[in-house]
């Protein structure tokens, strides 16, 4: 469901009856039209985007204990042009959405390379790989010296290979199995004898590490490699909004097309009726009647109210991750005292920071450095109340261009943060009459 929601309107339409049920006795063609015209209000994806952007609204801080050899990797940490700041922001977004994600510290296949000088000459070095929560398959672990460590990890990955056509690449799905000191990959192959696909060993090799270089990041941790998506309830509400909005579109379509009703017109069977502004319909029947039957509109208003209520609930769920627990006056006090006073998003970011530091140590292990060093991620973004937190999300949406200035004003006023006596049109005039802000140029019409 989460993967489909993140795919937007196109993915939701493709999912069909999974998230947009066909009602009993609903005509198949009518349902298909309803499905193909439904549009998704992207509350889930926007909330994930806004929340994951909070800790990365400021650059990550690098510690002085990070070796120069590792610091040089930060500008291209995944060998795909992504810097460390952006990479961790993407991992945070994945953990918030799916409840779990991971950083794999991989190393290019280097068969035949025997010295560090040869590695440098070929540009070989370790790099980060983001593993999505929906790519993880299974794992094995055991407790060693008081720590739970991986003994095996399995996940799905997509790899591209060249084809005979120079303008086309082949995208292949494969399963990677990591064991301590070794790795294997499996690909599907058709077994003509059995008439079914089988997973066949494709490649394998050895690694120089005595551990599996993978670090998990949790959304709402339950246990080792077990977590819940922190925004799960929001995803259900977003699907409900998708369904309710489709119903609302349907009732609007019905209401906008009135039904012409006639009674005892007394017209011959072969005579047609012309309907128009300059036409009249006459009948000799005393009780004849001809009129349009129109929708009363009560269901439309009820539907509109339901959609607005769902939007409010979705906004509240997203804002709750930013609210600091009662008992702390400021976020600064929270950070200085103990973890129990932090908001949920701060705890998730704290886990991400610890995971990133573990991944840095794995980088150090690959290149024989004694330590990988530490980074810090901005965490001073908690809110004291739910109203403040939800207003913060609304402002982020306004800055991103997904919410108008007037709607932002109305929503914040609804939360009691602006006096009800203040009118938007009057406020607009006041804004226009203000002197330009420092550093800006005001143009006259």
Task: Give the tags.
445 residues, five-stranded antiparallel sheet, three-stranded antiparallel sheet, globular, DNA-binding protein, DUF4055, DNA-binding, DNA binding
In DSSP terms (H or I, runs of 4 or more residues), the helix count works out at 14
Terminal Cα span: 50 Å
- Strand percentage, roughly? 15-25%
Mean pLDDT: 83
Q: Report the C-alpha radius of gyration, rounded.
A: 30 Å
User: How many beta-strand runs?
Assistant: 14
Strand and helix order: HHHHEHHEHEEEEEEEEEHEEHHHEHHH
Low-pLDDT runs of 5+ residues are: 327-340
What spatial order of strands do you see in the largest sheet?
Answer: 4-5-6-7-8
Broad shape: globular
Helix content: 25-40%
SS content category: alpha+beta
Largest sheet: 5 strands, antiparallel
Please outline the helices and strands.
Layout: H1 2-6, H2 8-15, H3 28-37, H4 43-53, E1 61-62, H5 68-71, H6 84-98, E2 100-106, H7 116-122, E3 127-131, E4 136-144, E5 147-162, E6 169-179, E7 182-191, E8 196-206, E9 214-218, E10 220-223, E11 226-228, H8 232-256, E12 259-263, E13 289-293, H9 298-320, H10 331-336, H11 344-366, E14 375-376, H12 386-399, H13 405-414, H14 424-433
Antiparallel strand pairs: 1-14, 2-3, 2-9, 4-5, 5-6, 6-7, 7-8, 10-11, 12-13
């Amino acid at each position: 469901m989460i993967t489909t929601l993140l795919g937007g309107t196109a993915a939701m339409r493709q999912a069909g009856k999974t998230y947009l049920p066909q009602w009993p006795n609903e005509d198949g063609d009518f349902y298909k039209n309803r499905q193909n015209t439904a549009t998704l209000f992207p509350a889930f994806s926007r909330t994930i985007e806004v929340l994951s952007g909070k800790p990365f609204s400021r650059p990550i801080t690098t510690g002085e204990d990070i070796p120069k050899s590792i610091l040089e990797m930060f500008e291209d940490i995944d060998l795909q042009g992504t810097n460390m700041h952006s990479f961790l922001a993407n991992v945070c977004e994945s953990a918030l959405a799916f409840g779990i994600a991971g950083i794999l510290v991989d190393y290019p296949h280097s068969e035949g390379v025997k010295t560090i000088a040869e590695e440098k000459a070929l540009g070989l070095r370790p790099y980060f790989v983001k593993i999505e929560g929906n790519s993880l398959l299974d794992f094995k672990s055991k407790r060693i010296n008081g720590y739970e460590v991986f003994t095996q990890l399995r996940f799905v990955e997509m790899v591209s290979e060249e084809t005979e056509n120079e303008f086309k690449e082949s995208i292949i799905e494969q399963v990677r199995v990591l064991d301590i000191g070794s790795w294997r990959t499996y690909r599907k192959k058709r077994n003509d004898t059995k008439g079914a696909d089988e997973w066949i060993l494709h490649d394998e090799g050895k690694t120089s590490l005595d551990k599996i270089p993978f670090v998990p990041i949790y959304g709402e941790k339950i246990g080792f490699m077990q977590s819940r998506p922190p925004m799960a309830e929001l995803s259900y509400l977003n699907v409900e909004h998708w369904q309710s909005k489709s119903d609302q579109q349907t009732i609007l379509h019905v209401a906008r097309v009135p039904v012409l009703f006639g009674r005892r017109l007394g017209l011959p069977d072969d005579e047609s009726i012309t309907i128009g502004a300059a036409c009249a319909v006459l009948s000799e029947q005393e009780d004849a009647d001809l009129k349009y039957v129109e929708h009363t509109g009560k269901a439309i208003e009820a539907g509109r109210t339901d959609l607005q209520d769902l939007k409010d609930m979705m906004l509240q769920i997203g804002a709750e991750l930013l609210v600091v627990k009662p008992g702390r006056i400021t976020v600064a006090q929270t950070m200085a005292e103990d973890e129990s006073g932090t908001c949920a998003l701060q705890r998730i970011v704290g886990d991400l920071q610890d995971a990133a530091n573990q991944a840095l140590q794995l980088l150090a292990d690959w290149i024989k450095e004694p330590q990988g060093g530490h980074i810090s991620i901005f965490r001073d973004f908690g809110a004291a109340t739910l109203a403040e937190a939800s207003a913060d999300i609304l402002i982020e949406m306004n800055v991103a261009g997904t919410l108008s200035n007037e709607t932002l004003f109305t929503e914040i006023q609804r939360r009691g943060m602006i006096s009800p006596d203040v009118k938007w049109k009057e406020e607009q005039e006041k804004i226009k009459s203000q002197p330009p802000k420092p550093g800006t140029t005001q143009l006259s019409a």
